[in-house]
């Protein structure tokens, strides 16, 4: 009564369907890893050369003055968009503090979707390089500026136009080779 049983062959399309979730996961993982390790801060910005958006941000509760459109006219300045919950913001903060100590360019901040107490603790711990900080609790101003995520740093010319945008945390090389040359060129044009 023992019949030789032939193994049942599964159709090829069934094998494909079984492997599909693994292929999709692999593609998503590859895209994630590419994004994680691709340090290209040259994302295009439609804001370069345009006037900064009109805004009026209150200060972080318990800290100095807020930030408005008018504050960014009359001199070349940097605007750094940051948050206490942003790990890369911690990476670039020592360089911002060091830059602020040189008095070579005013640095202003836009604190994005943060709790006031957390923002104050962050500044107390890492240093406060900002002349003014506006609290963007809704995130609307960051959207108007075309912010992809934090941190982002903008170079603003004396007429209130965005001259340069750096996406992500900057390091000493990108500060000295990308950001500060734009600042110096604009300051020379302003003084000419």
UniProtKB/TrEMBL annotation:
<comment type="similarity">
    <text>Belongs to the thioredoxin family. DsbE subfamily.</text>
</comment>
<dbReference type="InterPro" id="IPR036249">
    <property type="entry name" value="Thioredoxin-like_sf"/>
</dbReference>
<keyword id="KW-0201">Cytochrome c-type biogenesis</keyword>
<keyword id="KW-1133">Transmembrane helix</keyword>
<dbReference type="InterPro" id="IPR013766">
    <property type="entry name" value="Thioredoxin_domain"/>
</dbReference>
<keyword id="KW-1015">Disulfide bond</keyword>
<dbReference type="InterPro" id="IPR004799">
    <property type="entry name" value="Periplasmic_diS_OxRdtase_DsbE"/>
</dbReference>
<dbReference type="Pfam" id="PF08534">
    <property type="entry name" value="Redoxin"/>
</dbReference>
<keyword id="KW-0472">Membrane</keyword>
<feature type="transmembrane region" description="Helical">
    <location>
        <begin position="12"/>
        <end position="37"/>
    </location>
</feature>
<protein>
    <submittedName>
        <fullName>Periplasmic protein thiol:disulfide oxidoreductase DsbE:Thioredoxin type domain:Thioredoxin domain 2</fullName>
    </submittedName>
</protein>
<keyword id="KW-0812">Transmembrane</keyword>
<dbReference type="InterPro" id="IPR017937">
    <property type="entry name" value="Thioredoxin_CS"/>
</dbReference>
<dbReference type="InterPro" id="IPR050553">
    <property type="entry name" value="Thioredoxin_ResA/DsbE_sf"/>
</dbReference>
<feature type="domain" description="Thioredoxin">
    <location>
        <begin position="46"/>
        <end position="188"/>
    </location>
</feature>
<dbReference type="InterPro" id="IPR013740">
    <property type="entry name" value="Redoxin"/>
</dbReference>
<keyword id="KW-0676">Redox-active center</keyword>
């Amino acid at each position: 009564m023992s019949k030789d049983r032939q193994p049942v062959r599964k159709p090829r399309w069934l094998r494909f369907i079984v492997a599909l979730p693994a292929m999709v996961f692999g593609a998503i993982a590859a895209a994630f890893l590419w994004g994680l390790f691709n340090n290209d801060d040259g994302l295009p910005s439609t804001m370069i050369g345009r006037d900064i958006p009109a805004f009026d941000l209150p200060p972080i509760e318990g800290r100095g003055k807020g930030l408005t459109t008018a504050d960014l006219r009359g001199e070349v300045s940097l605007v750094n968009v940051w948050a206490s919950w942003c790990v890369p913001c911690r990476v670039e903060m020592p360089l911002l503090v060091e830059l602020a100590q040189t008095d070579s360019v005013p640095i202003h901040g836009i604190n994005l979707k943060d709790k006031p107490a957390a923002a104050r603790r962050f500044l107390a711990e890492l240093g406060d390089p900002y002349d003014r900080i506006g609290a963007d609790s809704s995130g609307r101003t960051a959207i108007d500026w075309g912010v992809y995520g934090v941190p982002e740093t903008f170079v603003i010319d004396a007429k209130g136009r965005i001259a340069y945008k750096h996406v992500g945390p900057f390091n000493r090389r990108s500060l000295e080779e990308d950001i500060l040359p734009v600042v110096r060129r604009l300051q020379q044009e302003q003084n000419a």
